[in-house]
Specification:
mainly alpha; Rhopdopsin 7-helix transmembrane proteins; globular; cell membrane; Trace amine-associated receptor 1; transmembrane helix; TAAR; receptor
Length: 339
């Protein structure tokens, strides 16, 4: 006999029919993802906040992104976990709207931050002499403001004004809506708009900038190689350093792009295609793809912070409680600041 989320038989959502073992496994996996997301991003936040040497414009952008991902792990993922495992929403209609809006806002804000970080890295690698004049604290503040405000206005405006239903109200209320559900529904127009705003535009910026950096780095390496044939002794050391920095920046951005596209592309492709396929994509697949997207926030601190030596040293100091020692904030985590 099937279980219902509520006692209203005709319009209640159907509860998941998974066994207790399957539920326990799913809860364990999701709790692990949530804890990794919260702890990883919290360490990034503490590191950049505490150590004065890390108070650079670029790091404040990473700090802001870590805050977004931390809040996603704290405020959104736990409720999504219950919804995904039980197939029921027990927290009321108003909180459903708040949760959905916050989910869309924070997920989009995380992607916006990734896009702006790629712009920052472009100037750092491709125009290092003018980097500090172009990317100052005011520019970073504007980037952070845009990364939070546009996703917030878009998400809360769309959900609370019910613009996501526009053009598909009859389909939703007749064939999809049930009591005890809190799924994200998009019409054809709102689905395309969400796809463009939250994924396609920031994602395209990241891809274009990555390829621009890649080809400029290759050109710089070729120029240095040509010059070093004529001035081998004087430029040998500089050549090695430059190529090493270019390779590191290109490799890091390559990993960023790979993680970003792997995590979010399936969800957004399904989101934009579902209305055009008459909503035939199974809800369980959509749920799984949402969690795949959440993994981007789990992996962000590993990609952006764990790859840097300063982070490993900061992590060690945090774990051993050395940050509570006097003047620990002035500790030198590296010899010199590189963009």
């Amino acid at each position: 006999m099937m279980s219902l989320c509520h006692n209203i038989i005709n319009i209640s959502c159907v509860k998941s029919s998974w066994s207790n073992d399957v539920r326990a496994s799913l809860y364990s996996l999701m709790v692990l993802i949530i804890l990794t997301t919260v702890v990883g991003n919290l360490i990034v936040i503490i590191s950049i906040s505490h150590f004065k040497q890390l108070h650079t414009p670029t790091n404040w952008l990473i700090h802001s992104m870590a805050t977004v991902d931390f809040l996603l792990g704290c405020l959104v993922m736990p409720y999504s976990m219950v919804r995904s495992v039980e197939h029921c929403w027990y927290f009321g209609d108003v909180f459903c709207k708040i949760h959905t809006s916050t989910d869309i806002m924070l997920s989009s804000a995380s992607i916006f931050h990734l896009s702006f970080i790629s712009i920052d890295r472009y100037y750092a690698v491709c125009d290092p002499l003018r980097y500090k004049t172009k990317i100052n604290i005011l520019v970073i503040f504007v980037m952070i403001f845009i990364s939070w405000s546009i996703p917030a206005l878009f998400a809360f405006g769309m959900i609370f004004l019910e613009l996501n239903f526009k053009g598909a109200e009859e389909m939703y209320y007749k064939h999809i809506h049930c009591i005890g559900s809190c799924s994200v529904f998009f019409s054809k127009t709102s689905g395309v708009l969400a796809f463009m705003t939250s994924f396609y535009i920031p994602g395209s910026i990241m891809i274009c900038i990555y390829y621009r950096i890649y080809f400029i780095a290759k050109g710089q390496a070729r120029s240095i190689n040509d010059a070093s044939q004529k001035f081998r002794i004087g430029l040998e050391e500089k050549n090695g350093i430059s190529r090493s920095k270019e390779r590191k920046a290109t490799k890091t951005l390559g990993i960023v792009m790979g993680v970003f596209l792997t995590c979010w592309c399936p969800f957004f492709v399904c989101t934009v295609m579902d209305p055009f396929l008459d909503y035939t994509i199974p809800p369980i697949l959509n749920d799984a793809l949402i969690w795949f997207g959440y993994l981007n926030s789990t992996l962000n601190p590993m990609v952006y912070a764990f790859f840097y030596p300063w982070f490993r040293r900061a992590l060690k100091m945090i774990l051993f409680g050395k940050i509570f020692q006097k003047d620990s904030s002035r500790c030198k985590l590296f010899l010199e600041l590189n963009p």
